[in-house]
Amino acid sequence: MRLSDRISRVQPSPTLAITAKAKALKAAGVDVVSFGAGEPDFNTPAPICEAAKAAIDAGKTKYTPASGLGELRAAIAADYALRGREVTAAQTIVCVGGKHALYNASQVLFQEGDKVIVPAPYWVSYPAQILLAGAEPVIIDCPASAGFKLTPTQLAEALEDEAVNALVLCSPSNPTGSVYTAEELAALGEVLLKHERVRVLYDAMYDRLYYDGAIAPDLVAAVPALDAQTITFNGFSKTYAMTGWRLGYAIGPEAVIAAMGKLQSQSTSNATSFAQYGAIEALKMGEDAISEMRETFRGRRELLVGLLNAIPCVECETPEGAFYAFPDFNAYIGERFEDDLALANYLLEEAKVALVPGSAFGAPGFMRLSYATGDDVIVEGVRRIREALG
Ligand SMILES: Cc1ncc(COP(=O)(O)O)c(C=O)c1O
Fold first, then answer.
1. Domain CATH number, residue 353
2. 53 domain-assigned
3. Nearest residue CA, atom 1 of ligand 1?
4. C-alpha of residue 28 to centroid of ligand 1, in Å
5. Last residue of a domain, one of 231, 254, 285
6. DSSP, residue by residue, 24-44
7. Does 96 lie in the same domain as 12?
8. pLDDT digits 0-9 by tens, 9-50
């Protein structure tokens, strides 16, 4: 059967091959240590589950408005006051996960001829979603020496091309855990304000998993004038350990949010009704639901980064947010291993350790290790890597 040109523009995620292999080994009874998880290993806090169950029992199982329950949209708007922003419910939309919110935004904002800046290392879905919208990703390399962050000079240079009219920025970052400071955001904002045509997709999915404070700096809070150019993305998956609930949201100018609502009304319709009631409870709990998980992640971060830096010739920056470490394994690439994919395959086959090669994120030679896993697993996994590398 003929498939559309659109779908042939994107490749399946290169991370899937390793993950599938790790799963197959596990299923065959092999003791695999996995650093692959992109989700918290905690259960969703009980009060959130109770609220969703109560919603089912109360018969709240029907369609909701396509853009989400008014009560949830108001709660999301109120929650953003914590970041120093004034947001109205009409500027919010509830989607079926943060990934869906980003997809909807790409569909309503991008078209053929548009070029979208994606700083690398990047989260795997940005380039694919941009391509699916008919636009072209412009990858800008942001090395470890620059903290994996886009500089105002790099941004200004890329914007000399008039066809470049959007930017995707992720802070805290998946895969690096790097976080833009308010000053760095302000410096990027200064450049962006000179180019009104540039729309910014600001992915703050991990903003409450930040280790230098409770919430990572927000772009629009740092540069309020960027309000008209920015769509902010956030969700419940990472913050409240709700990955399977499929709930995320976007905040932006009303016209963009209304367009996303129109698309959603003709595609998925609303996110699951009773999941939305759980999300209302999550926002009520706020720090009570988050702080213990954050502290556990903080301890694991210290442990993992320390162990990784003790492997000869491996260098790992301390991530400031999210739950990933992104060490540099380039010293092992070249003679012994052709590339990071070969290294990841070797570590899986020989050491029975699954990690995601950096080339999946546009950063060959690096590896992503999730620390959403127990201390004993971290210790054993790094011990195996060290041993296998000799
Ligand atoms: C940077 C980033 N953005 C967005 C998402 C989407 O999360 P979800 O669709 O579960 O809300 C993820 C999930 O891995 C992510 O890492």
1. 3.90.1150.10
2. no
3. 174
4. 29
5. 285
6. HHHHTT---EE----S-SSPP
7. no
8. 888 766 667 778 888 998 999 999 999 888 899 999 999 999
Residues whose beta carbon lies within 6 Å of some atom of ligand 1: 38, 97-99, 123, 170, 174, 203, 205, 235, 237, 243, 248
Last residue of a domain, one of 269, 285, 301: 285
Q: What is the pLDDT of residue 251?
A: 98
Q: How far apart are CA 98 and CA 192, in angstroms?
A: 24
Distance in angstroms (rounded) separating the CA atoms of residues 164 and 34: 39
Structure confidence by residue, pLDDT tens digits, 237-252? 999 999 999 999 999 9
280: nearest Cα among 43, 74, 65:
74
Strand partners, 148: none
Mean pLDDT value of segment 192-204: 98
How confident is the model at residue 15, as a pLDDT? 64
Residue 59 CA to ligand 1 center (angstroms) comes to 30
pLDDT in the model for residue 321: 98
Percent of residues, the chain, with pLDDT higher than 70:
99
Residues 172 and 276 in one domain: yes
